[in-house]
Amino acid sequence: MIIKRFSQKKGKQPKRSAKFLELDITSLLDILVILLVFLLKNFNASDLEINLMKGLKIPLSQSRKLGSNAVIVTVNNKYDLYIASKLISNLKDSDNEVIAPLYDELSKIKSEVDEHSKNIAMTDLNKLNAQKVTKVNLVFDERLPYESLRRVMHTASVAGYPEFKFIVQGNYQ
Questions:
Q1: Which residues make Cβ contacts (< 8 Å) with residue 129, sequence separation at least 6?
Q2: How does pLDDT run across 66-103, given as a tens digit for each residue?
Q3: pLDDT value at position 32?
């Protein structure tokens, strides 16, 4: 061996036999399939994100339609009324058909969005956002009576939100 090493000229590598190395990618493909299944299972086509209140029990539904970004109105079983996780009032405080604090807050949000859309040139994205102004997502505790739901819907429609989407818990099988 020593003779071979010193007998070679400088800068030249010894000749190796030409063998093709086989690369087994079966394990890599298994990992990729598992990742693909995981990502597809956790994919959510809706851009809606809702933070639910503690103790809120949402009704079950078989509906497969997804919600979209809009004003989120939540009423829990204690009749507390929230807009985007901000406490507005309690439904028991008012016996009127129109809930004044809810009406005031929704009107304020609508006027802010309308003012903002006037100040910006109407691109396709802004037209899409302007269309969402008339929608409201309603999250109700399933233990509430229908009368509470009706009053909130009536107030929202009077305030300029005639389209509703009820947020429910999916029961898919």
A1: 113, 117
A2: 566 788 888 888 888 988 888 998 888 877 888 999 99
A3: 92
Give me the sign of the Cα torsion angle 86, 79, 74, 52: positive
Three-state helix/strand/coil letters over 138-160: EEECCCCCHHHHHHHHHHHHHCC
Tokens of 146: 């229908």
pTM of the model: 0.59
- Ramachandran sector of residue 11 (left: φ over 0; alpha: ψ -120 to 50; beta: rest): left
Q: Take residue 104 and report the two structure tokens written for it.
A: 């005031």
- In 3D space, the residue among 105, 110, 112, 70 whose CA is nearest the CA of residue 88 turns out to be 105
Instruction: Name residue 74's amino acid.
Output: T
